[in-house]
Specification:
CATH architecture of the largest domain: 3-Layer(aba) Sandwich
Order of helices and strands: HHHHHEHEHHEHEHHEH
Strand content: 5-15%
Number of helices: 12
Helix content: 55-70%
Radius of gyration: 26 Å
Length: about 270
């Protein structure tokens, strides 16, 4: 092969890479030469070569989208299905998990309500569901209830509440964590009710709370507003009740026992 032919081939390759970048096809850019060599070795047809590149490009795009959505979700990275100790999850909830993890409830704009005393693993379970949903292409946002209320209250003050609600609408499911700890005045209660009402039968919410429904008047204060809020979140929902001992307390006791045994050996 002459030097001029080599130079021409290199120029064509460089030009192709530039065009592929312009078309925003990073998978093509990275792999087209390797696949071309394999096509030559294995006798692929042009359509087979193109099929392999397109398949890789689509796969890499899906993975990049999942990574973007996971980062945007603000989900705790360690609260996944793999790190969830299913032996500590009540049997009924274990049976509900597979159906929730596939995310179908979000397509139907249904809610997930997770109740239990502190330390029962409520946040871990809804976060694990959220991570699985992201793997399936859904957009999820995790946010403590008090923080969402404060953000919406600031948006109302700045006359941007409609815009903020529209941004939240981009998420298939919003995980509202620790609703029972929100102690609101009337303005805070109103923005929370507005958020729940705006998503009703349109988008999903996933709520964890240490307060059962009969205690939600502590959150919404007004009996009519409390009843209306409960009606909206319960109408289309799956309810997870986490009973039993505190997981955090059990873990702390186990750590203390291990620590004492280590000290006893010294």
């Amino acid at each position: 092969m002459s030097a001029s032919m080599t130079t021409t081939g290199q120029a064509e390759t460089a030009g192709l890479a530039l065009m592929l970048r312009a078309l925003k096809l990073p998978g093509f850019v990275e792999h087209h030469e390797v696949f071309a060599q394999q096509a030559e070795r294995d006798g692929w047809s042009c359509s087979e070569y193109l099929h392999q590149l397109v398949e890789l490009e689509l796969s890499s795009r899906t993975q990049r989208r999942i990574e973007r959505n996971r980062k945007a979700s603000q989900l705790p990275a360690d609260k996944t299905l793999d790190t969830l100790d299913l032996k500590r999850v009540p049997a009924k909830v274990r049976r509900q998990l597979p159906g929730l993890c596939d995310g179908g409830f979000a397509k139907r704009a249904e809610n997930v309500l997770c109740f239990g005393l502190p330390g029962r693993g409520k946040s871990h379970i809804v976060c694990a569901i959220g991570h699985e949903m992201i793997n399936r292409g859904y957009r999820v946002l995790f946010i403590p209830a008090y923080l969402l209320v404060q953000q919406l209250l600031a948006a109302k003050r700045d006359l941007t509440l409609k815009d903020d609600l529209r941004k939240l609408d981009l998420f298939d499911a919003v995980i509202l964590d620790d609703l029972g700890y929100v102690q609101q005045d009337r303005d805070e209660m109103e923005v929370l009710f507005t958020f729940l009402g705006q998503r009703y039968e349109r988008r999903s919410v996933m709520i964890t709370s240490n307060l059962v429904f009969s205690q939600w008047d502590r959150i919404f204060k007004d009996p009519m507003t409390t009843a209306a809020a409960i009606d909206r979140v319960v109408h289309h929902s799956a309810i997870l009740n986490l009973e039993g001992p505190s997981i955090r307390k059990q873990d702390a006791e186990a750590r203390n026992k291990r620590s004492k045994r280590k000290k006893g050996k010294k």
